[in-house]
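Structure, all four chains, one model.
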Amino acid sequence: MFSITSRVYYQDTDAGGVIYHSKYLDFCERARTEFLRKHNIEQTELAKKENIIFVVRNLNIEYVASGKLDDLLEITVKITNLIGVRIFMEQKILRKSDNVLLAKLIVEIVTINQEFKPVRMPQELKEKLLS
Amino acid sequence: MFSITSRVYYQDTDAGGVIYHSKYLDFCERARTEFLRKHNIEQTELAKKENIIFVVRNLNIEYVASGKLDDLLEITVKITNLIGVRIFMEQKILRKSDNVLLAKLIVEIVTINQEFKPVRMPQELKEKLLS
Amino acid sequence: MFSITSRVYYQDTDAGGVIYHSKYLDFCERARTEFLRKHNIEQTELAKKENIIFVVRNLNIEYVASGKLDDLLEITVKITNLIGVRIFMEQKILRKSDNVLLAKLIVEIVTINQEFKPVRMPQELKEKLLS
Amino acid sequence: MFSITSRVYYQDTDAGGVIYHSKYLDFCERARTEFLRKHNIEQTELAKKENIIFVVRNLNIEYVASGKLDDLLEITVKITNLIGVRIFMEQKILRKSDNVLLAKLIVEIVTINQEFKPVRMPQELKEKLLS
């Protein structure tokens, strides 16, 4: 299972003393980007050379427990389905010290071009994603 | 229907030229907070006096169209259900100039105390919310 | 003196219970953008039609007092100098309820083109800014 | 010289195609926190056990070149002075691939307690910082 680790800084927290709820999406984006990079997909190049951009189409997040300042997080990425212009991913955000699940994200990514039209993934891209 | 308007600034956009996907959650939080204020609920006071905090428990967002720099947004808030410790809300983010729907959010809010335990909403709070 | 008002939401605060320090820059950007709009300058159009982008070149911020959740802020904008490719502005962030100064910003803006080269402001743009 | 590396993700960029200007402060906070941790100072503990919080009092940032999506950044931290309640630090943000300087930050940190009053650093804290 692919994962990255990321620290919780003041910038990620709010006055409730916990990670601000939209920041979990930012942690998840970092993990997806590193997942893509690990599969030899760099988004800047993909946009320039192939005119393909990944955008989030739908997202569900369940908040299970609260992350706090100085926590070390582990964020996982798993492709659950890949069809046409859509990639479905499951992501977990865990507190690394005790492996407690903080949040679980299901995200649907769509491939579009710079004119914001859906474009089917080239076979090579699909293969990279599933490699 | 309750709504607020909010402008899209550089800080809300990303290198794709559109609103960054987690920022929609931030716009929605602003709208919910103003919705609460309009119902005479100020979160700072509620935390101090009643030891009640609203936290997001679950959230689903569908991204329908892309908001851009300088767009004026309208963000709506509607309570769809309210039971025990849970408030369910539906929110829409629209581009005000042509009323196009950009995103639709369904959010489940839970009332907890500062020890992060769920607490049932006092009757008075419920009445304010539904007033 | 030009100013806007803006509310402090959870998204603007951190676990210290106050506005996170970089968020003051975001409030200031909103005020500068509305200042420009009031002088009939819309940045999206300026970029498209005149290939001119405003970027921050240097910034100094003094933090005087701490803003908190639910505070209503007033953010001012004043041009102090305008020469060649540079605009110097002074901005204050005040708590509106008691007019206490929270932070003071001095910012140097430079006009560049999409190739990131400095470009002198057209006379018309200068006139709008000083109108 | 202490430094950390950090990747530039979509969340750090804006519609100008570059890192949004306030995000440099966020990268710098991450570096300062890791600098503290390396000197055996964890801010959560320091707040709980010693009632000492670090806050930014003044900050100057010069933007030299534009960071972009997918850049790998190196962020340095150096204490330049430490006296009474004040710590002065110099930080650089460099693009790691070619060592180009993107921004330079000078920051004054003040130690306060939870009542927001300045408190002199205990000798032990000073020694840790300078070790």
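The helical segments of chain B are 23-38, 43-50, 123-130.
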